[in-house]
Amino acid sequence: MLKTIYMFELKKLFFSKVNLITLVGAVMMLLFLAISSVAEDQSAFRETARELDGRIIDGQLFDEMKSALKYENGVALLQVKEGYEKYVPILNMIMPVSGDEIDFARFQGMGFYELRRQRISQRLEKQGLTEAEKAYWDSLEEKVQKPFVYHYHNGPANLLKSFQALGFFTLLLSAVGLSGVYAKETADNMNQLLLCSRYGKKKLYLIKYAAGMTWILAAAILVVLALLIPFGIMYGMDGAGEMLQLVKPLSMLPCTIGQMLAICLGIYLLAAVLFASITMLLSVTIQNSPAVTCSLLGYLLIDLFADVPNRFRLLQAVWSLRPNAILMNTGFVNYRLIRLVGKFFMNYQAAPVIYIAIAAAAFVIGLWQYKRLQVGK
Amino acid sequence: MELTADRLTKQYKNKIAVDRISFTLTNGVTGLIGANGAGKTTLMRLLSGILIPTSGTVTCDGMDVDTEEYRDILGYLPQEFGYYPEFSGRDFLLYMSAVKGLANPDAKRKTEELIELVGLKDAARKKVRTYSGGMKQRLGIAQALLNNPQVLIMDEPTAGLDPQERIRFRELISGLGRDRVVLLSTHIVSDLEHIADRLMVMKEGRLIWQGRWEAGKEDLEKFYISVISGDEKSC
């Protein structure tokens, strides 16, 4: 019987026109995003990226590059000159460190890595990290192999860069798809029938919750595939085993792009669970589907545009734990740490535990609210 | 089977919707009549356990109404309720069977039986959104009967039914009332003629008359008007 109810609850979610339209819309937009990204990335650059495979990024390579760039007052300008295209993948990698104006004079020997270290130190200072936090990061930085060695990594790198968009889409899918899980039964006057039925109280809450989670996880996986498949076909997935710094040169995490992809995927799926559980809690509490959707879309806007200044240390630390902040590219170079039982944890280490705890709390509060539901109160 | 209300009261902010009502219903059909706003729907919700009383109790053979055991033997048809428009009539009944705890083979058998009983056999595969008001009401009646309830509470069950369907419904209810508690409310008193063994009359949240009713002995409509206007001694 419970399985039958579960199947019917899935049918309500998966055959709802609004849900289908939102899901198909999200998949189409991501496919478009992936295809347009591939189209922008000229095939010639992809070829040169493969030619550079295995090159050590050091003074010798920078000397070669100098001749391919135009200069003004000793500073390289990014203007096309013969042979320029060959070095685009390296330029893309060094520009987050050097800025748009590349001063190759500073890159002699290990100069590039000294500049990188300076930039990181500036950021650590700006974020107001303690000496202990800085020492923690230094210990990780020591494990990052230098000089970097270039390897082709366009496929996994593009996927990694797209995770931010995925987080927003998942929140949207949750806000639209799950806002009515409990609220719609009230709006449609179906609660009158359900709440006086044998399984209509506690068990129906649990089954609806399970169906809601199934919907959001299926939708979340589908939108990942909407990016993964075109990127995989166009770029291939080689390069996943290369160092993260090829994509995020200012990161001090000693891990590979593939490992970071796995971390992002895990956080992304947990974020989907978190969004779903909060949506369903709001659905059972507010009992008004459009109000739930609007509340979450309002949050989405705040999430997109609000930023907490560095001087509000605690608030910034909390704000930087939100799923989209971690999935955003800047999340990989956010140096804020969380100290717990004498140990430091990075955002992406602490966030899963926090998400699971919030989701569990939302589940329990929702159940309590559901049991108190009345008709015509 | 005895369904007992004891000093049942439901108060909203500034209004007492049900005011210290007490009664005991036994097997048979009881008609609940009263003008719109008299408190019939609130009383029925209290009896169905979907609304918590401000004070007083409802028990069924000693069982509290907020238990799985009571919900197991309860059939409830609300005055107005939505359906899942994307479900077929059959799917809707199968879903309600599962929520009512019927095992799969029983659910299928009972669903087909009730589809036949309420005359929806030809429309069972159609989406509920294509149903007329009368068809939806018949589907509602069918869902209330799925678990073979010992306590059947129906709020304005004849609303939306055409004259022929009304007659068929009355016959159905007369048969059902023999071995279970049936309470049905209406503001159309003629609906109760010939089928109600007992009557309860509500006015402004209070039960102003209750007792046995013998069909044919008196004109129900005239009797009701005399009760409402205060000519008949209140209970």
Written overview of the protein:
The complex is a heterodimer of chains A (377) and B (235). Chain A folds into 2 domains: 2-39 and 153-371, no CATH class; 45-141, no CATH class. In chain A, 65% of the residues lie in helices and 4% in strands. Chain A is built from 17 helices and 4 strands. Chain A has helices spanning 2-14, 17-40, 43-51, 59-66, 88-98, 111-126, 131-141, 154-161, 163-177, 180-187, 191-194, 202-235, 257-286, 289-305, 313-319, 323-327, 347-371; strands spanning 70-72, 75-77, 337-340, 343-346. In chain A, the strands form 2 sheets. Chain A has a two-stranded antiparallel sheet with strand order 1-2. In chain A, strands 3-4 form a two-stranded antiparallel sheet. In chain A, strand 1 and strand 2 form a beta hairpin. The two termini of chain A are 30 Å apart. In chain A, 38% of the residues are buried. By secondary structure, chain B is an alpha/beta fold. Chain B contains 7 helices and 10 strands. Chain B has helices at residues 40-48, 68-72, 89-99, 104-117, 133-145, 163-176, 220-228; strands spanning 3-11, 16-25, 28-34, 55-60, 63-64, 74-77, 151-155, 181-186, 198-203, 206-212. The chains are: A mainly alpha (377), B alpha/beta (235).
